[in-house]
Amino acid sequence: MDQIVNVDEFQELAKQALPKMYFDFYNGGAEDQHTLKENVEAFRRIMFRPRVLVDVSKIDMSTRIFGFPISAPIMIAPTAMHKLAHPEGEIATAKAAAACNTIMIVSFMSTCTIEEVASSCNAVRFLQIYVYKRRDVTAQIVKRAENAGFKAIVLTVDVPRLGRREADIKNKMISPQLKNFEGLVSTEVRPNEGSGVEAFASSTLDASLSWKDIEWLRSITKLPILVKGLLTREDALMAVEAGVDGIVVSNHGARQLDYSPATITVLEEVVHVVRGRIPVLLDGGVRRGTDVFKALALGAQAVLIGRPIVYGLAAKGEDGVKKVIEMLKNEFEITMALSGCPTIDDITRNHVRTENERLHSLL
Ligand SMILES: Cc1cc2nc3c(=O)[nH]c(=O)nc-3n(C[C@H](O)[C@H](O)[C@H](O)COP(=O)(O)O)c2cc1C
Ligand SMILES: CCCCCCC(=O)C(=O)O
């Protein structure tokens, strides 16, 4: 693993390790995959305004998310079905999260059960949920997560229907049986045509979900509630008004609505209207420590990492996930040092220049 020097290199290793159907599922975005490229490219258009002659002999990357101390503002995004990537599945990912002292958001579509993940290690875990037409199923899973010591619920709000992932349609992607749902719903779909994941999603997801349902979610859990999948100031305001505890600016890793904006380009408009009332997190296209820094400079409290975690898992199991997190942390640390920011609180809006600002300066 010493030969691996950045997280992108895990993508090719994952491709070699996985059957094509599974690699395509993890790797793919919706339709033309325009947003998939943009999520990464938009970070590259942001430049630094580094400060010098600041004492950076000690760098402290640590921060707190909902009161939980983590070693750096880098968390694990919810991604479905880790056992398709590695036999130990979400347990390996959770152990890596614990070793790196960060938070893992476990997917509603996990292949290990909530209880298995909880008893495997002491990682701080949040549970991501989808709301099914059968609300009782979602409610039971939330209750089990609460009982198993999960610390927050992350409601994904950008999947009233599954985006068109053309690779999955071509491959007739199989949706496996998920242990969490045993005795509740059959998740196994082997489609004659199209994507099994899409077929499963359309039969289960409640597309009528709306802001008033935050109240329903509040009525079934005492845990903090984050909404994941907002991209506009209008929805950010709705979220604050609905009384949620946090927001994840996300386009679902570009797997839902193609030509949605790159997340980093809309972060500021969300942060601006939220006015510090609740934490704002971001995911989508974070591949470098410099990206983490840029997101924090534009107002995020932390970032979530999706595909690189799965690629690390596929290539090298728990050690691969650890390596992905450690590489991002190392890159973030040197970015802080070279920008003149010894602590997270020292990172400000003035440390970056966005593409808009550059264009403006030309007028
Ligand atoms: C293979 C895969 C599975 C995903 N599964 C879920 C999921 O179950 N629930 C969810 O809210 N988001 C899911 N996402 C979206 C991620 O949580 C996250 O928003 C996205 O991956 C971040 O972008 P990145 O992959 O560029 O880091 C998934 C993404 C991928 C790539
Ligand atoms: C019931 C919904 C299936 C969603 C599959 C997992 C997911 O979110 C993804 O992006 O893939």
TrEMBL record:
Which keywords label this protein?
Flavoprotein, FMN, Oxidoreductase, Peroxisome
Known EC number(s)?
1.1.3.15
Q: Where does glyoxylate bind?
A: R165, H252, R255
**What reactions does this protein catalyze?**
2-hydroxyoctanoate + O2 = 2-oxooctanoate + H2O2; 2-hydroxyhexanoate + O2 = 2-oxohexanoate + H2O2; a (2S)-2-hydroxycarboxylate + O2 = a 2-oxocarboxylate + H2O2
**A molecular function GO annotation:** (S)-2-hydroxy-acid oxidase activity
Q: Which cofactor does it need?
A: FMN
Question: InterPro entries under this entry?
Answer: Aldolase_TIM, Alpha-hydoxy_acid_DH_FMN, FMN-dep_DH, FMN_HAD, FMN_hydac_DH_AS
Q: Which residues bind FMN?
A: 78-80, 107, 128, 130, 156, 228, 250, 283-287, 306-307
Q: Which Pfam families match?
A: FMN_dh (PF01070)
What are the GO cellular component annotations? peroxisome
Span-the-membrane segments of this chain are: none
Give the UniProt record's GO annotations in the biological process aspect: defense response to bacterium; hydrogen peroxide biosynthetic process
Main localisation:
other
Q: Which compartments is it annotated to reside in? A: Peroxisome
What positions does the domain FMN hydroxy acid dehydrogenase occupy?
1-357
Q: Where is the active site?
A: H252
Domain of life assignment:
Eukaryota
The subunit field of the Swiss-Prot or TrEMBL record says: Homotetramer.
Family per UniProt?
Answer: Belongs to the FMN-dependent alpha-hydroxy acid dehydrogenase family.
| Protein name (record) | (S)-2-hydroxy-acid oxidase
Source organism of the structure: Capsella rubella
- Source organism lineage? Eukaryota, Viridiplantae, Streptophyta, Embryophyta, Tracheophyta
